[in-house]
Design a protein that fits this description.
The protein is mainly α and 556 residues long. The chain has 19 helices and two strands. Helix 13 runs parallel beside helix 15. The two termini are 48 Å apart.
């Protein structure tokens, strides 16, 4: 049996067509030695542990990559749901400290993406124009090493929220910034791997497919948390969070180790070949000394990247719409549906809005394989525009249609956000080809996209409340500083008098925001040219850059 296992591991074939290393997976000597010892000690009886190890070693790269989303989703959904309530209801944070913490967090949350992206990828930014051989295994190993450290640290930063260890205001500020720092490092390296592990659109959609699948599974932690959440007795919830964190640490450690095993051997073989043949290479005389590009020069190059500019314009509106739906979802339920539907139905709509985008994205990704990401995203914009127009014509009294529209509006909007990472990976390819970089600056480009689009998170509640106030003529909405949701507070004593105006204002806000967003996004998306033949040409050029370059050899 161990001979068959050794043969199976040594002849591991490429999984999902991902990355050059998948074609030539090495024998894992240490792992096989361990398996041999286990099998010798239990040769007289079936060993389920050996079968499990064998199965884990042979998991496709796309599955292991996608599982990293599970270990993030397990923690992040619980964090989003409970961190505000914990500091407000349990730790009794004051309003001033809360707003100071949120303001500092907003600034840090916007700046840390490009900062960490620059620190991660600045070594790849070179003005050398030719004679450079791109070494993919080393780049992938760099990302995996970062994930192997930052993943467990992200899990531990999650735990510091649930135990009071400092003044509530100080702890709130430090915990938010610490948690977001490690979350950003994990997200940047995980998203960068999407561009570094594969080049073809089919392979990248496969990677994204498993990420969405595992994210949906990770969202189940929100439902389990309801059973242990108790503001009066916090012990059970703390134990639950510790279990989640330890599971995440184990998952990050195992997944990154498995992926590193698949690329370390190829990287070592490549370095040995380069060392052996170093004296046989004739470097072209035209190759100049490598010069690192400064951040200012990189930004200048990015400002000339036409497709990048149109994409971030569209994505800024998308981020705005996603957070508008999140902020105003409870408001729409309260003023449009609360007196028409049961409490359980409202809770069901809220729960579906968290899980359905991940599951729905699985179907969207299958469409992307057949039609391309550009066509699918454009179709979702048209669908958003059409559904909003139908809802506008139907009016606010069609309760069942209103329920479907409120839920589908959030599901389709969140689903579009999940697809846009594939577009960013295409922009990474184009950036590499246009500027002839030494290696694709994947993490940095993801960071620059986040820098431009994250202000949409702040614009969503501000613009939404301003539009409703302008329509009704009264300042009847205000942002509740002690909550992550928008609350309605009529200022006049005769609240019932203004309820029809409030209901009508909520309805028009619900339908006109997606109509406006869809129209602007279709306008900007029509100017985006990185699709079809243009995209295929860019991918073929990047593929040619990743192939070994032919070099002249001295006559011996």
């Amino acid at each position: 049996m161990i001979v068959q296992l050794r043969k199976g591991l040594c002849e591991s074939r490429r999984h999902d067509g991902l990355a050059p290393a998948e074609n030539q997976l090495p024998c894992w000597g240490n792992a096989l030695f361990l398996l041999e010892v286990i099998s010798q000690r239990s040769c007289d009886r079936p060993n389920m542990g050996l079968r499990l190890l064998t199965y884990i070693f042979n998991l496709p790269t796309a599955v292991i990559y996608g599982s990293l989303s599970l270990f993030v989703s397990l923690l992040h959904n619980v964090f989003l749901l409970y961190y505000v309530d914990t500091f407000v209801s349990v730790y009794k944070i004051d309003k001033l400290s809360f707003w100071i913490g949120e303001t500092v967090f907003l600034i840090w949350n916007s700046l840390n993406d490009p900062l960490f992206g620059w620190l991660s990828d600045r070594v790849f930014l070179s003005s050398q124009q030719s004679g450079v051989e791109i070494s993919s295994p080393e780049v992938v190993l760099k990302r995996l090493k970062a994930l192997s450290w930052n993943g467990p640290l992200f899990a531990f930063s999650f735990l510091v929220f649930w135990v009071a260890w400092a003044h509530p205001g100080l702890q709130f500020l430090l915990c938010l910034c610490l948690y977001d720092s490690f979350l950003t490092l994990v997200d940047l390296n995980h998203n960068a791997l999407l561009a570094d592990l594969a080049v073809s659109a089919h392979d990248r959609t496969s990677l994204n497919f498993y990420s969405s699948l595992f994210s949906a599974v990770g969202s189940l932690s929100v439902f389990m948390s309801y059973a242990v959440w108790n503001k009066e007795d916090f012990f059970s919830f703390r134990i639950f969070c510790v279990v989640l964190a330890l599971s995440s640490v184990a998952g990050f450690t195992l997944a990154t180790w498995l992926l590193r095993q698949r690329f370390e051997s190829e990287g070592k073989t490549k370095r040995d070949q380069d060392f052996t043949l170093k004296d046989l290479y004739i470097q072209p005389s035209s190759v100049s000394q490598e010069k690192r590009i400064t951040l200012a020069e990189y930004l200048k190059q990015l400002s000339r990247h036409r497709n990048f500019l149109w994409f971030v314009s569209m994505n800024l509106i998308q981020v705005f719409h996603c957070h508008f739906n999140s902020n105003f979802f409870p408001l729409f339920l309260e003023h449009l549906l609360s007196d028409r539907i049961s409490l359980s139905t409202g809770s069901f709509l809220l729960g579906v809005s968290y899980i359905a985008p991940h599951l729905n994205n699985l179907y969207f990704l299958s469409l992307c394989r057949r039609c391309g990401v550009y066509a699918v995203v454009r179709g979702l914009f048209f669908l958003k525009l059409a559904l909003s127009a139908v809802m506008l014509l139907a009016g606010p009294d069609q309760i069942y249609l209103l329920c479907i529209f409120i839920a589908s509006n959030r599901v389709f909007t969140e689903g579009t956000c999940k697809l846009l990472n594939l577009v960013v990976t295409d922009l990474v390819d184009e950036d590499l080809v246009l500027n002839r970089r030494k290696q694709a600056a994947s993490a940095l480009l993801f960071g620059m996209v986040a820098l431009v689009t994250k202000p949409g998170q702040t614009f969503a509640p501000l613009i939404g409340t301003w539009v409703l106030c302008a329509y009704t003529g009264y300042d009847i909405f205000q942002r509740d500083p002690l909550s992550n949701v928008v609350s309605a507070q009529p200022k006049l004593e005769s609240g019932t008098t203004w309820e029809p105006a409030l209901r009508r204002g909520c309805f028009y806000l619900l339908v006109f925001v997606p109509i406006t967003c869809a129209f602007l996004q279709l306008l900007s998306w029509s100017q985006f040219t990185l699709h079809g033949k243009n995209l295929q040409m860019v991918k073929s050029q990047r593929q040619s850059l990743t192939e070994p370059r032919s070099q002249e050899v001295k006559t011996i």
